[in-house]
Amino acid sequence: MRALDIDPVHDTRETFRALVDATSRPGTVEQTPTTPAVHAVVATLVDHEVTLHGGGDELRTTLGRESRLDTAPFEDADVVVVDGHTDGRVTVAKRGSLKEPSEGATLVYEVADLSADTEPIDGDDDQTLTLAVSGPGVPDTRTFGVDGLPATEVEAIAEAQSGYPRGVDVYLAADDRVVGLPRSVDLSVASDVPDEEVA
Amino acid sequence: MTDQTQMHETSPTTEATDNEQQESATTPTGVSDLLSESGAGMAGYNYAYLDEHTKREVRRGVLKAISLPGHQVPFASREMPLARGWGTGGIQASLSLLGPADTFKVIDQGSDESVNAANIRRLAKTTADVETTTDTTEASVIQTRHRIPEEVLTDEQILVLQVPTTDALRRVDGSDDANRRRHAHKNYSKMWVALYENVVKWDEIQISARYPAMVNGRYLMDPSPIPRWDTTKLNDADSLFLFAAGREARIYAVPPHTDVEPLAFEDRSFQVERFDESCHRCGSTDTYLTEVTGDDGVTRYACNDASFCEKRAEHPDLSKDHHLDEDDVAWGPETPDPILSDETGGEDA
Hints:
- The structure holds 2 protein chains of 2 kinds.
- Chain A has helices spanning 10-24, 37-45, 57-65, 151-160; strands at 30-31, 52-53, 79-83, 106-110, 113-116, 128-135, 138-147, 169-174, 177-181, 186-189.
- A 6-stranded mixed β-sheet of chain A has the order 1-9-8-4-3-2. In chain A, strands 5-7-6-10 form a 4-stranded antiparallel β-sheet, with helices on one face.
- Chain A has a single domain, classed as Rossmann fold.
- Helices cover 22% and strands 26% of the residues of chain A.
- By secondary structure, chain A is an alpha/beta fold.
- Chain B has a 7-stranded mixed β-sheet with strand order 1-9-8-5-4-2-3, covered by helices on one side.
- The radius of gyration of chain B is 22 Å and the shape is globular.
- Chain B has helices at residues 4-9, 12-17, 19-24, 31-37, 52-67, 88-97, 115-128, 176-184, 189-202, 228-231, 306-314, 338-343; strands at residues 73-74, 103-108, 131-132, 141-145, 158-162, 213-215, 219-221, 240-245, 250-254, 260-262, 289-293, 299-303.
- Chain B is of the alpha/beta class.
- At the A-B interface, helix 1 of A face helix 1, helix 5, strand 1 and helix 8 of B.
């Protein structure tokens, strides 16, 4: 992982702690020790025990050199790296079984930008969505901003998570920031389409 | 496999054979080199004892467990330097979490000083270079067996509970396969019938520790052998609770601000333990007490949470949320119990 400038022991541990916080407090923006966050997340979670779909060449080459790369088609992969959006295909990602729902896929989305509720996102406002989450880990409702994730994709994620406990777990990553959207939460678009509940 | 990075991540045995080569190197090439120079860690062992492959396995399990509150996620539990059933699951979870910036506390039945707790603490200190403490409020990660501390945990803290029996349904059916099917379909009728039979026979629910609780309205969970007193602390807490069972190779979790409801009937509500006595050391009446019979044959009651008892002995008025900015943070049972003090004066504690 040094090829990606990631310390295999301490950077992955810090990334894991960021993921623990992101998953147990959905909607909060957590920081990874290295950039880009998507590399840090994959380096922390992926080895030959799980299958990977997607991800850049650099990432795949590095994993392959350490014998940690086992690839699978989108529908069968345990970890899926998504560049922007899946065009709704997230609904066909692995959701696990009722008996073992933890076999559902983990999707890591590379998005343009992420911001906590209080910070505005610079740039094109048309692309900024405010998402609202509620459920375990969230007192009441929490909102955050995301740039570069289409509203239709948010709907598709909510659909893929709707059959709780079966479903997929999602992390959104941008620069050195990561937001967790585990399947236990209710996800909806809070801005742009205020009346449209998607979850 | 000849890559530098891979060398760094290889198993302890391989690293041990490379030890001579590492020592002759003048410039450090990785964190392990730096650590061995600072005297931390044991030569030949990876940081935090576990190899990185094991940590990834535990970490994947932990994240899935948090995503599915109350569901038992299987993981590949490794051999640890102590027997399974002595906290190996807790150690694997703790060592996967811990970093040099952490402060680690280990409690065994409320005590920091039991042999098992002291050894686990020392293992983490030696291999992961963490600070250790006995003060609940100073710890960032707390590994515990059978208790949740009296002092209110914050959103900066993670509690790792050691779990001997993972499935609440095992009380009513020994078949793991049948129980997993029940969890899949949220079919908890057999547990309800068992509780009903309990009420018919004893007029109350006779479960002391390991009281079954419903998590997020979906999964029935065994909260590990914590007393009923601690069960309510899991509900809508600020901290994350991780439950790890090394022998049964399962991890489950209760994220912060999650509904955890102990099973009870409308006319037989959930009751916590009640004590007529106060702690003989600090005089506390709002803590979980254990009965201790001394050499003189006299039975006394003492706080089970030894660290908090010491603080109380010095400051008798210290509240359980003394370290927080806000007052009256709900944590643990209210004292005196509104139901019992009105009707029976707390006699059937």
